[in-house]
């Protein structure tokens, strides 16, 4: 299984390419959705990496996939400008996902 990146910045794609992770740079929502759909059907992709900018554009689709499927593992990463989310993002995500307040 491979890791694959969908990015909205060239810097992220180049950085991960240096680590041996291939990917694509897309900026419009339609192209991102098509590539996301292709990737989740590709059985060779074990980890799908999305930059936060990409994740924000298709968040509902990603969250629906995460809740209903185990593969591929989807990971959001910050771009070169740093983390866009607040510090309590993970706690809020757990609260929304399972309804338990931490």
Topology:
Layout: E1 2-7, H1 10-18, E2 22-25, H2 29-41, E3 45-51, H3 52-57, H4 59-68, E4 73-77, H5 89-98
Parallel strand pairs: 1-2, 1-3, 3-4
Short description:
With 102 residues, the protein is of the alpha/beta class. It has helices spanning 10-18, 29-41, 52-57, 59-68, 89-98, and strands spanning 2-7, 22-25, 45-51, 73-77. Helices cover 47% and strands 22% of the residues.
| Sheet with most strands | 4 strands, parallel
Low-confidence stretches: none
Give the SSE string: EHEHEHHEH
Q: Regarding quaternary structure, how should these chains be classified?
A: single chain
CATH topology: Rossmann fold
CATH class: Alpha Beta
Question: Mind telling me which CATH architecture this is?
Answer: 3-Layer(aba) Sandwich
Q: Which class of secondary structure composition applies to the elements?
A: alpha/beta
Question: Biggest sheet, strands in spatial order?
Answer: 2-1-3-4
Please identify which CATH superfamily we are dealing with.
ATPase, V1 complex, subunit F
Number of domains: 1
Helix content: 40-55%
Pfam families: ATP-synt_F (PF01990)
Keywords: Ion transport, Transport
Protein name: ATP synthase subunit F
Family: Belongs to the V-ATPase F subunit family.
Protein described:
This protein is an alpha/beta fold and 102 residues long. It has one domain: Rossmann fold, CATH 3.40.50.10580. The chain has five helices and four strands; from the N terminus they run βαβαβααβα. It has helices at 10-18, 29-41, 52-57, 59-68, 89-98; strands spanning 2-7, 22-25, 45-51, 73-77. The chain has a four-stranded parallel β-sheet, with helices on both faces. Strand 1, helix 1 and strand 2 (22-25) form a beta-alpha-beta unit. It is globular, with a radius of gyration of 14 Å. The chain starts with a strand and ends with a helix. Belongs to the V-ATPase F subunit family. GO terms for molecular function: proton-transporting ATPase activity, rotational mechanism. Keywords: Ion transport, Transport.
């Amino acid at each position: 299984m491979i890791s694959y990146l969908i990015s909205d910045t060239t810097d992220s794609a180049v950085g991960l390419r240096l680590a041996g992770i291939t990917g694509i740079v897309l900026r419009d929502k339609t192209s991102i959705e098509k590539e996301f759909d292709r990737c989740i059907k590709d059985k060779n992709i074990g980890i799908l990496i999305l930059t936060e900018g990409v994740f924000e554009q298709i968040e509902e689709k990603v969250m629906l996939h995460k809740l209903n499927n185990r593969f591929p593992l989807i990971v959001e990463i910050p771009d070169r400008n740093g983390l866009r989310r607040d510090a309590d993002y993970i706690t809020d995500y757990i609260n929304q996902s399972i309804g338990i307040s931490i």
